[in-house]
Amino acid sequence: MSMSGLYSDYFGLTERPFKLLPDPDFLFWSKIHKRAYAVLEYGILSGAPITVLTGEVGAGKTTLLQRLLRSIDDTVTVGLISNAQGGRGELLQWVLNALSVTSDGNGDYVCLFQRLQDFLIHEYSEGRKVILIIDEAQNLSPEGLEELRMLTNINSNKDEILQLVLVGQPQLRKMIMHPDLQQFAQRVSAFYHIPPMDRDTMGEYVQHRMKHAGGSGHEFTDQALDRIYQASEGVPRLVNKLCDFALLYTATENRDVVTASAVDEVLSDGIFVGNFDQLGEAAE
């Protein structure tokens, strides 16, 4: 078995079905993800000033976001910020960079704000909507969130010149619900939290990804899926990681299907460290 093929050749797959990188082509439209995507679309189409989507690491937020970006037409100007940090003024520079707005090098906050306002008004006069998407928004400080809220004050009375979409881990929801951010929370018109998958949904998710990669969808026994669910608690990133290694172990043992014992071997070897991932081992 070659390193390039890993277990894919053994199972007759066209690619690895459980890669950790977000891939919109592999998106499994569970009931939960359909609702989450509907809320994202609603926020944009309804002109919501702020839309918020939260979920655990690996819940599929970034994948949904990438699918959303694919669907946005050319009449919309989109700025995407990932892992923005910094104090007052620095976030505003992130915003300008995301929207490809050049500045004259003057880092004065008032000048930066005026530059952004001029750009937004120009886009509005040209009939273009501007959407600013902040991924990993839980890394923003409360001051950063308040600064974003202030940006929505640029909006006119009738139309939203700037719309914000914030995507982040569950702590983002806790931040927004803090009494000090009451004004921010009041501007959130659309909000959805993606919970982990239940056992049945996880089984459908694994089957979907195996079929999409060229498999039959029956490569895992029910008992193996039970063990995967117990270890992952239904978090997609953890499911992916455990399924990936379980397929590898099964291929090296020349077995036809992934059994519960193969999953147990992965767990006993310490390769799968679920709790570390849940604390945010890697950005989604």
From TrEMBL:
Stretches of the chain forming a coiled coil according to its record: none
Gene giving rise to this polypeptide: exeA
SMART domains: AAA
Domain AAA+ ATPase: 47-189
Organism: Dinoroseobacter shibae (strain DSM 16493 / NCIMB 14021 / DFL 12)
Identification of the protein by name: Type II secretory pathway
Domain of life: Bacteria
Listed GO MF terms: ATP hydrolysis activity
